[in-house]
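[agent] plan:
  1. take the single chain provided in the ticket
  2. run structure prediction with default settings
  3. attach structure tokens to the ticket
  4. add a short note for the reviewer (M.T.)
[agent] executing step 1
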Amino acid sequence: MQLTVREALEISPLNRAKLLAGHKGLTNIVTSINVMEVPDIIAWVHPRELLITTMYPLRDDISKIETLIPQLAHNGLAGIAIKPLRYIDTIPGMMIEDADRLGFPLLELPQDIAFIDIILPITGRILELKTEELIRSENIHKQFLDLVLIGCGFNEIAKTLGNLIKRPVMIIDRFNKVLASNARFNSHFLNREFLNIIDQDTVILSDSLTLELVEEWDSRQTKRMKVSHTDLEIIECEVKIGDSRLGRVMVWNKKTTRLEQIDLIAIEHASTITALKMMEACSIKQIEERLRNEVFNGLIAKNLPSRSSSIRSLKEQVDIDENQPFFVLITSIDASKNEVSTNFNKNIIDEALYTTRRYIQAINPGSLFWYQGYRLVVYFPIKTHNGNEVKDLHHELLEICKKVNESSKNVKIFMGLSSQINNLWDFADGYQIALKCVEAKLSSIINQLSEVVTFDDLGVFQIIPTQKNGVDLKAFFIKTLGKLIEYDQHNKTELLKTLHCSVQNNLNLSKTAKDMHIHYNTLRYRLERIKQVLGIDIFNSQSKLAIEVALQILPMMVDTLHSETGDL
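[agent] step 2 finished; step 3 output follows
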């Protein structure tokens, strides 16, 4: 509880003071009393102080008297009480006007009241209220602690806090999922426009909920924000362990009402207990995640006993048919752009993958998920058996990538999608296909790949390693095109470019000459030179195939060749 100016005016002898102006500020909080003894008082005052003075320090400086009230109001003081006549004849009209305009209480004290007679009872009352507040705070903390000790969850915390402060309460995790609320979702406070109700168990705060900071208290963990375009505001307290942000406790309020100090304390206690429950939930989740990963590792294992054990465990945990056709989908963070392994914030990655999971679950509730570092592996059962299944799914996944990438400016995702797998025993095959699609996207070996890469998109790379460190692949490339690259570098020619264009045109010389804007005979001369440099007949079917493959893997070899032989 806190003392207001109005309540202070009821305490003797301050109750004999006359309120000259600033009636709108009677609800200002008084936390201490200060006496103006120096002319530069602004340097010595603090917010929520009640300043008392005879005006002696400013008696000969009219300009400072005229600017005193605006400066005190700007510094957040509760009000000022002046005992005139001894050093000034009367309180200037300018001070009264400023006090009324700024809603800053201006009191006139009787001449026979000593300052100490005001300071002692007011300070005593402030200490009494502080003691009462500490006792109530301790009782509230014990009430929340008891909830944890008897095993209650987020719903009981939200309900208890709501009963204490008589307002709607929501507990939100760091992904904006509503974990608990004491209010109906169709109430005035929790209108459906603020919520995205996915299913009975999943409610997410909507993007339409736009908050603007109104007030942040130095001594409190809570902050007050207004809900744009409404008459509502939210008192919010972050749920944190150290520097880790786990979620938020949100209290909905009308702008016309104000929460008491003890209400803010109750919110903070609820936040502390919520943090304990969230840490407990995280510990349970980590154990479950470890068990799920053991199943996943068994599914992709080469030996049959491990696969058999994992399939058996999976069937015990969820309703799954081992003969149900499915896709394997891998969602990955674009590590090449964001340097995930060293510089990227894990919370941002987790949020992107969580959002992706939510979208996938919305289009296929039967999906199963495993987190592998900054990747999300998905078992995606096929719902129908029509020919448009892959096409429709590809479109839906592209939309998911678009939504996630637009909502997060700091992270980009993409996906690798396997071909259809017909039996859970072959999960490892689907995983390897999806992984190959992801590696192809990361390696940038194929130009113009979309955010969703399928096995068919890989072309010849379905049978060629996509990792940049493949020694056999490098040796094949150098053996096939190395001499031509070296010739171009030494002679400043464009034989590799000519060969590339010729192969793209299926060795159609007329079209190639036209595309390269060179004479037909010039092209023939260059092709003869290429045959001499490479020592092979580029028109031979086997040689032509080897060249085509080598040109396909050229993007993978650029960095290696640059470090060994200079720019291409």
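[agent] step 4 note for reviewer: The CA atoms of residues 225 and 545 lie 66 Å apart.
[agent] ticket updated
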